[in-house]
Amino acid sequence: MSDSCVFCRIVDGDLPSRTVYEDDDVLAFLDANPLAPGHTLVVPKAHHRRLRELSEEESAALFAAVHELMEPIEAAVDADGSNVGINDGPAAGQEVPHLHVHVVPRFRDDGGRPIHAVAGEVPDLADDELDEIAAAIGET
Ligand code: 5GP
Ligand code: ZN
């Protein structure tokens, strides 16, 4: 728990939120500046910045809650689909340093873009570079 963390304060009930789900490890509430109706943030109750910092159990609880919430979120706003994503680290756009999963409901012809739109300039990688990257990920 961090006194200065806005999501810890929401978890502790010091700040109000429109909570939609709670269990021992996870809280979910509506985003205060929604990108779409039903935009929901799913957060571990424990303060962690990055996904890699969660224990296996905390991670399992977080994604189980996301899984459970997908249908009720989409049904509540009559959505046709959703984007699910984490801004994992400042370079990826993370502003609140308490890990959270965004569930952004999507609607046919809503003018939005797929998750492919989040990255910068698309790299042109040769086959050997792709092989090296795959091997490096596999080794770590
Ligand atoms: P990030 O860029 O860190 O992935 O996104 C942070 C999200 O948290 C933003 O979408 C922002 O609207 C939301 N947010 C920031 N402060 C609050 C708050 O106090 N309450 C709620 N419900 N959402 C917040
Ligand atoms: Zn926190």
Structure characteristics:
single chain, 140 residues, alpha+beta, five-stranded antiparallel sheet, globular, binds guanosine-5'-monophosphate
Secondary-structure map:
Elements: H1 6-11, E1 19-22, E2 26-30, E3 40-44, H2 56-77, E4 81-85, E5 101-106, H3 127-139
Antiparallel strand pairs: 1-2, 2-3, 3-5, 4-5
Bound molecules: guanosine-5'-monophosphate and zinc ion.
Task: Describe the structure in your own words.
The structure is a single chain. This protein has 3 helices and 5 strands, in the order αβββαββα. It has about 140 residues and is α+β, with helices and mostly antiparallel strands. Strand 1 (about 20) and strand 2 (about 25-30) form a beta hairpin. The chain is globular. It starts with 5 loop residues before the first helix and ends with a helix. The structure holds guanosine-5'-monophosphate and zinc ion (ZN). Zinc ion binds near residues 8 and 98.
- Summed up, the helix count is 3
Helix content percent band = 25-40%
C-alpha geometry = globular
Distance between the amino and carboxyl termini:
30 Å
Short description:
With 140 residues, the chain is of the alpha+beta class. The chain has helices at 6-11, 56-77, 127-139, and strands at residues 19-22, 26-30, 40-44, 81-85, 101-106.
